[in-house]
Amino acid sequence: MTDSFNYAVVMVWLYLFVGGIMLPLLTLCILGVVEPELRPRASALANVAYNGFGYMPATFIYGIACD
Fold it and tell me: What would the pLDDT profile of 15-56 be if each residue is shown by its tens digit?
């Protein structure tokens, strides 16, 4: 898309930064719809889902790639 290395680095950094900003904002939007007494449980479940489906498979895939 571009021949400029600096432009490509800035765009990748911006992509990762915006992705990092979206996670807390979307979590707050989702927790805003949950009843107040269930919010701690919903927040814990969301964190378990983020770790279980996001971070944990990455180490498994890296292990498979190294083998």
Answer: 888 888 887 888 888 888 999 999 999 989 988 888 888 777
pTM for the whole thing?
A: 0.56
Whole-number Å distance between alpha carbons of 41 and 54: 19
Contacting residues for 8 by C-beta, under 8 A, at least 6 apart: 1, 2
Of 55, 56, 34, the C-alpha closest to 43 is 34
Give me the helices (H) in the chain, please. Answer: 5-33, 39-50, 56-66
3 backbone dihedrals φ, ψ, rounded to 5°: -100, -5
